Amino acid sequence: MKIKKLTLDDPRWNKFCYESDECWFWHTSDWMDYTLEYTGEDSELLSFYIEDGNKDIVAICPLIREKNKLSFSGSFGPNPALRNHLSQKLSKSVIGQIFTKIDSIATEYGIDECIMNLSTLAKNHLSPFTYNYLMKFGYENISLNTQVIVLDIDDKTLWGNIKKSHRNEIKRGEEQFQFVVDSPYNTDDKLFKEFKKLHLLAAGRMTRSERTWALQYQWKIKGNATIILAYLDKKPVGGIFAILYKDGAYYGVSANHPDYEHLPISHSIQWNMIKWLKQNRYKYYELGYQYFSDQPYNHPSQKEIDISLFKRHFGGYTIIHHRGKKRYKKSE
Q1: Which of 141, 167, 196, 284 could form a disulfide linkage to 248, CB 3.0–4.6 angstroms apart?
Q2: CA atoms of 248 and 289, how far apart (whole Å)
């Protein structure tokens, strides 16, 4: 077994990600490329993999240095991942090598802390028997919760799981708006540009580089993203960008035109995304973090708590999102 550093143009990495039940989109070189661009200066790709005697990848570890921290855009990096069907003995040996290597990198680069999470939409982590194994390697448990809608149920149940007040707003929105899907693999960039313009209007400024947008557009034409736009009188007033990978989808970002915030755009457009995902045979749709109250390691604002409640009202399940932090520099 040999440990080797990743180069982003190695096609074996993304092939491994697609085949491993411990990986989701967050593990891919596409996401790491985006993260490096988004983070900007003083960031460095340190991802590595373990190769067997046949030069086949046995395990991967996505890793990025951001100043004195191992993280992804200041947030949690994805878990190391093993090849499917390794023996229990080999799995234990390989995962031990990975965390030993992370510790060695932390020493070499003067790292203060490493923050990592288990990707919720990876097949193995959707199991009810999963646990936060990061704690076995000296990571503090700082887990939160996330909301996941299971899509492979009948339409009546899916609709009925939504809170009544949300259903009323959805009906109002569907009477007012027309919805257009910018499907995966579509190379026409017209709808993508309209969503980008909405995002700039909603934010009031350019929040990230042009290249991050170009990368997201590439995800879409490769089949790893979709956009739904809401139109009022032929004018785009809202949109959602969702990441697609394997049988799951992640609610990436939304943007509403500031002049139309009083209309039920978010309710109806989210429902249309749910319907589209179901029709296209995706099984899971992750809406993101669920905040309930102050924790020793997390202090949500009232706005974040309110947004969490808004997401929960679309139904689904609130499940644990395993996260961990390892401190290399002890507090004085």
Answers
A1: 284
A2: 16
* CATH label, 2-135, candidates 3.50.50.60, 3.90.1720.10, 3.40.50.970, 3.40.630.30: 3.40.630.30
Which residue, 306, 272, 277, is CA-closest to 289?
Answer: 306
Average pLDDT of 248-266?
A: 95
* CATH number belonging to the domain at 152-282, selected among 3.40.630.30, 3.40.50.2300, 3.30.1370.110, 3.30.1330.10: 3.40.630.30
Long-range contacts of 275-280 (CB under 8 A, 24+ apart): 276/181, 276/226, 276/228, 277/151, 277/242, 277/249, 278/151, 278/152, 278/155, 278/158
* Residue 202 identity (one-letter amino acid): A
Phi-psi region of 253 (alpha: psi -120 to 50; beta: other; left: phi over 0): beta
As a whole number, mean pLDDT of residues 67-77 equals 97
Nearest-angstrom CA–CA distance, 275 and 6: 38
* pLDDT at residue 207 greater than cutoff 70: yes
Q: Give the closest residue to 295 by CA, choosing from 143, 147, 138, 146.
A: 143
Confidence of residue 128 (pLDDT cuts 50, 70, 90): confident
- What CA–CA distance (Å, rounded) separates 189 from 186? 8
Cβ burial 50-84 (10 Å sphere, 16+ → b, else e)? bbeeeeebbbbbbbbbbeebbbbbeebbbbbbbbe
- Residue 279, classified by CB atoms within 10 Å of its CB into exposed (0-12), middle (13-18) or buried (19+), is exposed
